[in-house]
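Hi support team,

I'm filing this because I wasn't sure whether my run with adenosine monophosphate finished correctly. The job status page said complete, but I'd like someone to confirm that the output block is well-formed before I use it downstream. Pasting the exact inputs I used:
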Amino acid sequence: MIETITSLAALRARITAWRREGLRVGFVPTMGNLHAGHYSLVQLAHQHADRVVSSVFVNPTQFGPNEDFTRYPRTPDADTSGLEAAGCDVLWLPEVEAMYPFGVELAAKVQVPGVSAVLEGACRPGHFDGVCTVVTRLFNQVLPDVAAFGRKDFQQLAVIRQMVADLHMPVQILAGEIVREADGLAMSSRNQYLSLEERATAPAIHRILMEMRASSLAGVPQAQVEAKADAALRSAGFEPDYAVLRRPDFSMPAPEAPGPQVALIAARLGRTRLIDNLEFDLPG
Ligand code: AMP
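And here is everything the job wrote out:
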């Protein structure tokens, strides 16, 4: 049976008891409205830990003023049963007041320069500061040995890895593969904002990512690949924020330079903003 914990004192008691038994603790932070992508991270964490804690917390500090904080889907009952089925041991459900005891305005902030500033960071100012600020708090609450994050949020994973390395946080970061619907659409809590018509259009993002990979492998110059992807997104009905090829550290790939690359897209479809990416290797 999964145990739902809502007070920090109770969470600490549970974690301390596990530690006394010598058990390794895994952690999966989420914002709830869980799907198979989240549950795959619980399973991944379990491969590296004896007990797994998952948090559900819709973090106000990572949403911009005109973003979807208030309408973000909240489905606590389904999340609890889904986490239990996935093998999660504890559901950590903190209140905003417990997460930010001095209030959001006076909260100590964690900022990771550089990697936080580009792409998602440029489109969503302050977003990664909010993510780092809450993940630091969650790590201090749960004290995990390992924590699992999805490759779906490619840049978030890079920001978290840098934060953990830079601040010497004693936690190992695991990366989970992107879980997709049968038609290629990356699973996301935001997919349910889509109208039926938009839902039929949305898998174009994954198709265009695959075209970007194919063009890049065929030697098409980066600027052409990106321009073609942008045009394809617009003609499918999206308003792209970016459609780019980068190295995993977000530097520009040199022409035809071999090595790992990633195609990244963020695009709005109606009121819904979707992100996705595709990692690949350019052979030498
Ligand atoms: P969220 O609840 O959207 O904040 O996501 C919580 C965690 O689940 C993050 O580490 C995400 O990268 C991960 N995640 C979300 N969607 C997927 C997906 N389709 N496949 C794999 N991981 C995902």
